[in-house]
Design goal:
Elements lengths: L2 H4 L7 H23 L1 H39 L18 H13 L2 H15 L13 H13 L3 H4 L1 H14 L23 H35 L4 H22 L1 H26 L2 H17 L1 H5 L10 H27 L5 H28 L4 H22 L4 H32 L6 H17 L6 H12 L3 H25 L22
């Protein structure tokens, strides 16, 4: 058996084999530095993140606002009725499976990790004076910023541009190969700039791996902290063992494929989240949780644009860049992988349906989750211990301490470990599925190639346990996101060009008939009636 067959590259072209080899070499080199010189890698990544957020934090804030407007305009237009895969495409997944996959892949363990860390951190270190919202308590302000960053408008800004572009260009119009570079078809001819498409795919793979590695790093360190602090176990060794077990489950999922593997893992994770939130309401400071959630919701909804565009230029610091700029960079790093995956599992759905499942439904779900988790850790008796733990041990220590001081916290901790494991499995499954698909240009890549990419991502997850500072993991996504930020504008414009031409062609192909008896343009090629 030759090397190409072992790597799942036997049917790949030479450019695709080169794409696999170069990406693997780049990431393995970075991984080798991390294992051999973790302090040097931590210092380099943290320095890169600080420089990018200092000088380009404003760019991510502006870009997010522009993308938000563009996505709403596209969805509300007649192009919002375009069906992914064409007018005759049928949905591949039931609604619960579809929503579960989109939610667990798109949001990951950050709901738990940052749901604890961000509100407490902002409450302890609020925005500089003058405050963006006068009269609001620091706790309500902190939770309102959490809603901005991970509920809305964060949900609408970053994944949808790629999901719309990939769905329309690759599935509905059928332009180009199953690659990220295909989304440039409507605006750049591949033959005019030789090698451009290959470089775009290379950058997309590196950015995707950087983004997913960030969440795997969050998850690994948080799992280690929970096992060590809550259960008093040998955390690092046990976390390696848990990752090994997750790897076995992951390999089984790889062979089961998209319909059984990723779908079932996602559904189980969503059910566990519901159970954990119900238990948290039962054992936590429930009255405070509900009241703070409502108050913060008022601050959030009344000042959404103010908080979204807040930059605090008069303060001379980087508070907004270090929060909103960081979040938007992280979303951007994830957008390539999540957007293309959402398009893949949304075949047979319209753009407006995809908007609903990626924005409207998750907005309600994450609003409830973050309201409960934020109210829990900001409550009197909880906030100070969690803040002290965060100051000494970082974000993973914060969530572990919150569990330690909560009644029945060990039960919650078990649920949280399973939820994090579920997020890791679904993120690994979906990430390697799309990374392999992009590499091979194949909608259904072979299991051998996916397994190699899975091994690489698992390596980066374990690498995070050797990094000295949790902030180094955060830095990876920001560093990878900057070069790809402009690409998001290009692909959104490219999807508009392709959608416009596609609809026009459909109109030209419609048979001419008596205008008094013909139906209106609801019969557009690929534009179904609104039911």
């Amino acid at each position: 058996m030759n090397a190409a067959k072992i790597l799942g590259l036997e049917e790949a072209s030479w450019p695709e084999r080169a794409l696999f080899a170069v990406t693997m070499c780049v990431m393995l080199s970075l991984g080798a530095v991390g294992f051999l010189r973790p302090s040097a890698l931590s210092s380099a990544l943290t320095g890169a993140k600080g420089w990018i957020l200092t000088y380009f934090g404003w760019w991510f804030i502006l870009l997010g606002f522009v993308l938000l407007i563009a996505v709403f305009a596209f969805t509300a237009s007649r192009y919002g009725r375009l069906r992914i895969g064409g007018p005759d495409a049928e949905p591949e997944f039931d609604r619960f499976s579809w929503l579960s996959m989109v939610f667990t892949v798109g949001f990951g363990a950050s709901v738990l990790i940052w749901g604890v860390a961000e509100p407490v951190s902002i409450a302890q270190h609020p925005p500089p004076d003058p405050a963006p919202v006068q009269g609001a308590s620091v706790e309500s302000m902190a939770l309102a910023f959490m809603f901005i960053h991970e509920v809305f408008p964060g949900l609408a800004m970053w994944y949808l541009p790629v999901a719309i572009a990939f769905g329309i260009v690759v599935y509905t119009e059928g332009v180009g190969d199953y690659k990220i570079s295909s989304m440039l078809t409507g605006i750049v001819d591949e033959d005019r700039i030789p090698g451009l498409y290959w470089l775009v795919d290379l950058a997309a793979l590196v950015a995707t791996i950087g983004g997913i590695s960030t969440t795997l790093g969050f998850s690994a360190q948080t799992m280690s902290a929970i096992l060590g602090r809550v259960f008093g176990l040998e955390a690092t060794i046990l976390t390696y063992a848990v990752f090994a077990l997750i790897g076995v489950v992951f390999l089984g999922d790889v062979w089961l494929g998209l319909r059984k593997g990723i779908r079932n893992a996602a559904r189980a994770t969503v059910v566990l989240i519901g159970v954990a939130m119900a238990l948290l309401v039962a054992v936590g400071p429930s009255l405070y949780m509900v009241e703070l959630s409502l108050d913060a919701t008022g601050v959030w909804l009344s000042n959404m644009f103010r908080l979204t565009l807040y930059t605090a230029p008069e303060s001379g610091g980087n508070w907004a860049a270090n929060w909103t700029g960081f979040w938007w960079a992280w979303w951007a790093a994830w957008s390539i992988f999540v957007g293309s995956f959402v398009a893949r599992v949304s075949k047979g759905r319209t753009i407006r349906e995809m908007f609903a499942v990626l924005v409207i439904v998750p907005t309600m779900f994450t609003w409830i989750q973050h309201g409960l988790i934020g109210g829990w850790v900001l409550a009197p008796g909880y906030q100070e211990p969690v803040a002290e733990a965060m100051a000494s041990g970082g974000n993973p220590a914060a969530i572990a301490t919150a569990l330690q001081i909560t009644p029945f916290g060990t039960v919650l901790a078990v649920l949280f470990v399973f939820i994090i494991a579920g997020y890791i499995i679904t993120s690994l499954d979906s990430a390697v599925f799309m990374i392999s698909a992009i590499t091979l240009g194949d909608e259904n890549p072979n299991a051998r190639n996916r397994a190699w990419w899975g091994a690489l991502l698992a390596l980066f997850g374990m690498l995070s346990l050797r990094l000295e500072e949790f902030s180094a993991i955060e830095s990876l996504s920001v560093t990878m996101a900057l070069p790809f930020s402009l690409f998001l504008l290009l692909v959104l414009y490219g999807s508009y060009v392709v959608a416009r031409d596609y609809v026009r062609e459909g109109e030209d192909e419609m048979p001419q008939s008596d205008p008094q008896t013909s139906r209106p343009q609801s019969a557009d090629h690929g534009v179904p009636d609104d039911d």
